[in-house]
Write a structure and sequence with these properties.
By secondary structure, this protein is mostly beta strands. It folds into two domains: about 70 residues, no CATH class; about 160 residues, Sandwich (Jelly Rolls), CATH 2.60.120.1340. It is about 0% helix and about 45% strand. The chain contains no helices and 20 strands. Strands 10, 11, 13, 17, 19 and 20 form a six-stranded antiparallel β-sheet that branches. Strands 12, 14, 15, 16 and 18 form a five-stranded antiparallel β-sheet that branches. Strands 1-9-5-6 form a four-stranded antiparallel β-sheet, with no helix packed on it. The radius of gyration is 37 Å and the shape is rod-shaped.
Length: about 280
């Protein structure tokens, strides 16, 4: 193959001719078999002075066939050897599918380097094991059923997983549940006239044993908080009817002290998904 300019020396290791030091001189001509030679760069050669390998760029530089040391040499200095390494080729990027897991060192791939797919950066979870009760007809915070997360990047998403066990203290009544990020309601249905717009909705039918019923509800919602500040997710709930039944969590409506009076646990889990 033809080249414009100097042809690269590929894999041609050469030992330069011995160089006699001149007192007070820093620059010397490199030759092999009495012919001037030009290394590819200062990083393509090994230079030993007084038994010590020299660092390219700081201990010496090259220009064409001339090597210049960082300071003038003196009579007692000895240039032990100069070895030219030829042209160290750039192999470029490996072809797709050619790098196996065996070629990767342990812990070589960090979360910052692993891009192109969603990665879970952190998980925060709260489990509520005690009970909760409210007779308010307005959405009310369910104490103990919230979790806070601080995203590591503003473009991260937060996967919210909620599992909640609810009941009402009277039959033929409905309940509504709401998921919030801070004070903002999220995971909402489409509003339509007088219909209740909420994250979850349920009705407790009017039948025998109605107050022993417990409803298990769940939410899976991928949120985009667009922040790196601490962010709290929480649940609210309410029951609605003319006779103002109570909305309860982690127990049945009647809460009988018997085998049919169940007690349960609810939870909220947050997963940061990196972009």
């Amino acid at each position: 193959m033809g080249y414009i300019g100097k042809q690269p020396i590929v894999g041609n290791f050469q030992v330069c001719d011995a160089i006699s030091v001149v007192n007070g001189q820093a620059a010397y001509t490199m030759q092999v078999n009495s012919t001037n030679v030009e290394p590819e760069t200062a990083f393509h050669m090994l230079v030993s002075l007084n038994g010590i390998l020299q660092k390219p760029g700081s201990s010496f530089t090259i220009s064409g066939s001339t090597i210049t040391f960082a300071s003038n040499l003196v009579t007692n200095d000895v240039i032990d050897f100069i070895i030219l390494l030829g042209d160290v080729l750039n192999i470029g990027a490996p072809s797709d599918g050619t790098v196996t897991t065996a070629k990767l060192a342990d812990d070589a791939v960090t979360a910052a380097k692993a891009t192109g797919f969603g990665k879970i950066a952190q998980v925060v979870s709260t489990t509520k094991t005690d009970t909760f009760s409210s007779s308010s007809t307005s959405l009310t915070d369910i104490t103990g059923l919230s979790a806070a997360i601080t995203p590591s990047a503003s473009d991260s998403k937060v996967l919210v997983l909620v599992s909640i066990n609810v009941a009402i203290t009277a039959g033929d009544r409905f309940f509504a549940l709401q998921l919030l990020r801070g004070s903002t309601a999220i995971s909402l249905g489409a509003a339509s006239s007088s219909r209740t717009n909420s994250s979850l909705f349920g009705v407790q039918g009017d039948y025998t044993g109605k107050t022993t019923n417990i409803h298990t509800k769940s939410i899976v919602f991928l949120d985009s908080p667009s922040t790196t500040s601490a962010t709290t997710y929480k649940m609210q709930g309410k029951a609605q009817s003319d006779d103002s039944p109570s909305f309860v969590v982690n127990r049945s409506g009647g809460d009988a002290d018997a085998v049919h009076g169940g007690r349960t646990a609810s939870s909220i889990t947050l997963l940061e998904v990196l972009a």
